């Protein structure tokens, strides 16, 4: 087993420091907006924590401390120093860094228990030079000492605090958490430098997955995670860009948008925000991007792009475009985009699919390229039996209305009574807000035999993951038992979703993590990974729509494409040009800025099949 090696012996955060009386009441309290916490040791190997800021400078002995870490993944924790009679309330710490900082603290505290100690006499007589050093990274000695510690010795703990020894043992024995790849790490590092970053890549290259890691290293109270659509926002636990920007539907004049954004709550959100994240950027049009960027500058009284906010955007412009079709359709065509001077990355490694033939087909389709071999492979899937155990394929439709009609009529045609499951939303009156940013609906209608999709990771090793497909077998104690494709039957229980408004208010919805899954619209499926899909592309009306639909599937064996024809696939020529510019610098730090790059005639994107791409672009322009 690998020990977790954590080097995070310091962290930057906000905090409150409380000085306590002998009776435990608070004598004095100071709030610090930015401070640094550092774990150090002296020449006798005693551990201390330095708390340093403009307002305070404290060196606290790390002995018999009590740690509360329940809210560490929200960037909060409390450390009580009984010997110094001080409580340190940490907040606004980047969650991943705080968790790592606490890990090293647990390990070092536990390891210190069994390391040799100098007596008071030895300390007084010591001729050692006085020193304070940064602690060393966790090493094999620490791990061995921790294994030797008897963790039953420390049973009396205040409510909700954690047992230092048990925590240290757990961190030493657990395998390293699943991490991000090297190409994903490069993006993360660039974000940590404070640059504006745009990262792209084909479907399933882990853009949204990486966003989660990015969110975890940024201070929560200054970071806003958004996406262009509610369902995409839901996947990263964020809100829609519209709802954060507070400019209504964004269709009004600049003056109107500014007036709306000047409402007190909205204005405060813009002022608090230091890092703005936008997923599925391809669906934000140029005009909206310009408006939001301008509003940010006005509200923040700062003429830098987005009023000085760090902007991190990701998405794939070869997937679905903005709904509004104007001359400057895509946001990369806007002046604001150029002003942001994004460092651009193209992620290459596909994670959603692992079948190289399917990945290669998808990569060609993404560029609007279709050849006879690809056509035959997709047409051959039309007769494929992909169903099993009563679970039917989910049909991806070009229009939302079509998908709704299929779900309604299929449910109606099943025998038996409909059972209605009503979500509990809190606080009251937030249903509309929750509907905008949650995939799980306020009301779910089910019957025995209903085709459903799971909307939450329940047990990853059992295949009970977000997107898993199943069928309702029966109802036990009022809740459905669903049989999933993995063969597992699970009595689905109510789950809780929590989202934070840009004002910091927590909104919760309790509901069954299920959704009817006979059919979805392709637009609603953007961003998802699906188990078993049937696709009919006869009514395709957008560039990238066929590619989005097909790239939801994990492999060719669980995919059925009905009536495939090459004319259903095309790429937008403006986007291809943009990607040609980017591809010249793949995975390089490229501040594209205002400089328009001249291109060689033959793009690196597709040197050999340029003519075929061209054909499908022309098809689109004839439409
Ligand atoms: N580094 C990684 N390690 C393990 N799994 C990963 C990694 N990156 C992504 N994945 C998995 O790959 C799948 C696709 O990832 P994700 O949805 O983030 O891709 P995406 O680029 O956002 O796709 P889309 O363009 O369709 O939105 C998910 O199941 C995700 O959990
Ligand atoms: Mg995504």
Got a strand count? 28
| Low-confidence segments | 1-6, 586-623
The SS-based structural class is alpha/beta
Strand portion: 15-25%
The helix count comes to 20
- Rg is 27 Å
Which shape, going by the Cα principal axes? Answer: globular
Protein name: ATP-dependent DNA helicase PIF1
Catalytic activity: ATP + H2O = ADP + phosphate + H(+)
Domain DNA helicase Pif1-like DEAD-box helicase: 180-372
Subunit structure: Monomer. Interacts with telomerase.
Detailed description of the structure:
30% of the residues lie in helices and 23% in strands. It is built from 20 helices and 28 strands. Strands 1, 2, 3, 4, 5, 6, 7 and 8 form an eight-stranded antiparallel β-sheet that branches. α1 (95-113) crosses α3. It is globular and about 90 Å long. The termini are far apart. The protein binds adenosine-5'-triphosphate and magnesium ion (MG).
Which key features would you list for this structure?
623 residues, alpha/beta, 8-stranded antiparallel beta sheet, 20 helices, 28 strands, 30% helix, disordered C terminus, binds adenosine-5'-triphosphate, binds magnesium ion
How would the blueprint of this fold be written?
Blueprint: E1 10-20, E2 26-42, E3 47-52, E4 57-61, E5 66-68, E6 77-81, E7 86-91, H1 95-113, H2 120-125, E8 132-134, H3 140-148, H4 164-173, H5 182-192, E9 197-201, H6 207-216, E10 223-227, H7 230-235, E11 239-240, H8 241-245, H9 254-261, H10 264-272, E12 275-279, H11 286-300, E13 310-314, H12 335-340, E14 343-347, H13 356-366, H14 372-380, E15 394-397, H15 400-413, E16 419-422, E17 424-426, H16 431-437, E18 443-446, E19 451-454, E20 469-476, E21 479-484, E22 489-491, E23 495-500, E24 506-511, E25 514-516, E26 519-521, H17 522-525, E27 533-536, H18 545-550, E28 559-562, H19 573-583, H20 610-622
Parallel strand pairs: 9-13, 9-14, 10-11, 10-12, 12-13, 15-26, 15-27, 27-28
Antiparallel strand pairs: 1-2, 1-7, 2-3, 2-8, 3-4, 5-6, 6-7, 16-18, 17-24, 19-20, 19-25, 20-21, 21-22, 23-24
Helix pairs in contact: 1-3, 1-4, 5-6, 9-11
Magnesium ion binds at residues 207-208, 527.
């Amino acid at each position: 087993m690998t020990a977790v090696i954590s080097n995070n012996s310091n962290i930057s955060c906000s905090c409150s420091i409380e000085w306590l009386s002998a009776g435990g009441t608070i004598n004095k309290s100071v709030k610090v907006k930015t401070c640094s916490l550092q774990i150090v040791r002296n020449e006798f190997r005693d551990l201390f924590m330095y708390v340093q800021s403009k307002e305070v400078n404290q060196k606290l002995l790390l002995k018999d401390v009590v740690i509360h870490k329940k809210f560490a993944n929200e960037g909060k924790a409390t450390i009580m120093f009984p010997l110094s009679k001080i409580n340190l309330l940490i907040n606004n710490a980047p969650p991943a860094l705080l968790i790592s900082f606490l890990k090293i603290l647990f390990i070092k505290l536990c390891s210190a228990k069994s390391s040799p100690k100098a007596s008071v006499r030895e300390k007084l007589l010591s001729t050692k030079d006085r020193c304070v050093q940064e602690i060393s990274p966790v090493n094999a000695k620490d791990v061995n000492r921790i294994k030797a510690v008897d963790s039953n010795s420390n049973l009396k703990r205040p409510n909700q605090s954690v047992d230092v020894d048990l925590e240290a043992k757990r961190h030493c024995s657990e395998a390293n958490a699943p991490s991000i790849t090297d190409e994903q790490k490069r993006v993360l590092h660039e974000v940590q430098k404070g640059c504006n970053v745009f990262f792209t890549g084909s479907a399933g290259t882990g853009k949204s997955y990486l966003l989660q890691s990015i969110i975890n290293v940024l201070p929560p109270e200054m970071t806003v995670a958004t996406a262009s659509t509610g369902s995409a926002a839901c996947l990263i636990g964020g809100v829609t860009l519209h709802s954060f920007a507070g400019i209504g539907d964004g269709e009004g004049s600049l003056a109107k948008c500014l007036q709306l954004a000047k409402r007190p709550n909205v204005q405060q959100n813009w002022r608090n925000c230091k890092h703005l994240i936008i997923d599925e950027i391809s669906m934000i049009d140029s005009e909206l991007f310009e408006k939001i960027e301008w509003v940010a500058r006005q509200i923040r009284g700062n003429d830098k792009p987005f009023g000085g906010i760090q902007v991190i955007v990701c998405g794939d412009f070869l997937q679905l475009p903005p709904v509004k079709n104007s001359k400057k359709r895509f946001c990369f065509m806007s002046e604001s985009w150029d002003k942001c001077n994004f460092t651009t990355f193209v992620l290459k490694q596909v994670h959603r699919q692992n079948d190289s033939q399917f990945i290669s087909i998808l990569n060609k389709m993404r560029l609007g390229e279709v050849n006879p071999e690809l056509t035959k492979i997709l047409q051959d899937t039309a007769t494929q039996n992909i169903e099993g155990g009563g679970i039917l394929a989910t049909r991806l439709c070009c229009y939302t209305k079509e998908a709704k009609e299929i779900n309604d009529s299929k449910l109606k045609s099943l025998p038996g009574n409909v059972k209605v499951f009503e979500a509990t939303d809190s606080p009251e009156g937030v249903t509309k807000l929750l509907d905008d940013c949650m995939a799980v609906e306020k009301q779910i209608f089910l019957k025995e035999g209903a085709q459903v999709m799971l909307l939450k990771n329940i047990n990853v090793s059992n295949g009970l993951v977000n997107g898993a497909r199943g069928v309702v077998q029966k109802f036990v104690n009022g809740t459905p038992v669903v049989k999933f494709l993995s063969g597992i039957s699970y009595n689905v229980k109510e789950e809780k979703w929590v989202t934070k408004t840009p004002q910091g208010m927590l909104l919760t919805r309790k509901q069954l993590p299920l959704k009817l899954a006979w059919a979805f619209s392709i637009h609603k499926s953007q961003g998802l990974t699906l188990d078993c899909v049937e696709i009919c592309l006869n009514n395709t009306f957008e560039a990238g729509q066929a590619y989005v639909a097909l790239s939801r599937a994990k492999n060719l064996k669980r995919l059925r494409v009905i009536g495939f024809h090459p004319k259903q696939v095309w790429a937008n020529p403006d986007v291809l040009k943009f990607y040609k510019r980017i591809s010249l610098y793949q995975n390089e730090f490229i501040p594209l800025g205002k400089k328009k790059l001249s291109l060689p005639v033959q793009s690196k994107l597709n040197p050999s099949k340029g003519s075929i791409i061209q054909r499908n672009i022309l098809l689109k322009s004839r439409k």
